[in-house]
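User: Please go through the entry that follows and flag anything odd:
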Amino acid sequence: MKLKDILYNIEYSLSLEGQLKEDASCDVKAITFDSRKAGEDTMFVAQKGVHTDGHNFIGMAIEKGCKVVMCQELPQPQPKGVLFVKVADSDVALGRAAANFYGNPSRHLCLVGITGTNGKTTTVTLLHRMMRDMGIHAGLISTIVNRIDDDELPATHTTPDAIELNALMARMVEHGCEYCFMEVSSHAIVQRRIEGLRFAGAIFSNITHDHLDYHGTMANYIAAKKALFDNLDESAFALTNIDDKNGLVMVQNCKARVKTYSLQTVADFRCRIIESGMQGQNLEISCSIPVGQQSGSREFWTPLVGRFNAYNITAIVATAVLCGFDIDDTLRYASNLHAAPGRFQYLHGNGITAIVDYAHTPDALQNVIDTINGVRSRSQNLIVVVGCGGDRDPLKRPVMARIAAMGSDRLVLTSDNPRSENPEAILDSMESGLDDEQKSNTVRISDRRQAIKTAIMMAHEGDIVLIAGKGHETYQEVQGVRHHFDDCEEVRRELKIENR
């Protein structure tokens, strides 16, 4: 592609050997921000990252044959024979350049993004699954996996980088996908990885204590989420959970069509839990907007368990309706949706029920424990296994331990990706949130495999064991090395459940 076409909608100046130029007609065959992947006919983009500054690697990119460099600061002196594209913000420019390079694929899809602390993975996964059940071509970008229709691609981040995102969406368009459902993390928004994408709709699920090690304050965290909605255009929809105290904050001054969903207050889409149990729940959803005469109330059954899943299913139904689908058809397909991997996934063996869930924030852990306590009988004990990640927000550690202790009969504190930290120091921090009585019902076992084994050994027939924090993850990260570890595998081994 011609450089001038890649630079469409980007403010820039060109410099060659210290002289301003106007000619941007050279060919570019690839874009990269990794100097190791630079080469002839490649444009290297120097970004100011969180830990490293790409400007320090311009020389390496040039040594590999790169003749076009996009950057915020020009090197002095400028190397000969290299065309520099100076921009105000490399992150913004990279997003727009990547979108242009891949033909702006998001404009050929109905791209729906969801942001929030909890519920993102479940919502996008089930939206994608529902579309596929309907026979519609659709893509998925999630924490667990990326998909083009039913073809599975590995996921390495909650939101891929701008180049990978556009390349993936271009493949979706080529494959005939009409929709793409995408998790949008606060990190990705702040780092401008979604710059250049056009969203047909955005969903806000909720916001609770998380990622403060990165954002610093809750105000910054909220602002990061809000930026997704600030950049929607008039043709898009913004669907927000108004039961969350920041639900309406997200859509302040939003240009898009704002629609709301709720379990507690009047909203465009309101859900009422009629009956709930371990096998699912009976819900009533009311739609107050006249989308193709779809207003009114409908009652349906879902195998998704818990109040938090009632929010998720309401968001899914509302999104489908806002995308133009008939509400009765939507509910028929929605009633057959099952939980995403590692999201309230339960396994049963030897008379014991084990629930594996990704809950790794105080709010998510509280929701899962409340759900279990709302349906278990008095004779059933609840044993909780939980840890907190290393090199992450330490303030939530005592809070999570206290939530787990208050909601369970026995508590096992253990490791959850200790990374570079001492696992015992993390457990000390968690245990500081417990009083003496709670400590007497708590066991500390830093080895997660042994912790799960111990919790299951504690359980009697009929009891429930919740293993929280990792969910779908299949690794344990210790001192920078990822070792294979799967909570579900450990549970199946201890309960002697055959893999299917």
Remarks:
- Residues 22 and 388 are 54 Å apart (CA to CA).
- The first strand starts at residue 13 and ends at 16.
- The mean pLDDT is 93.
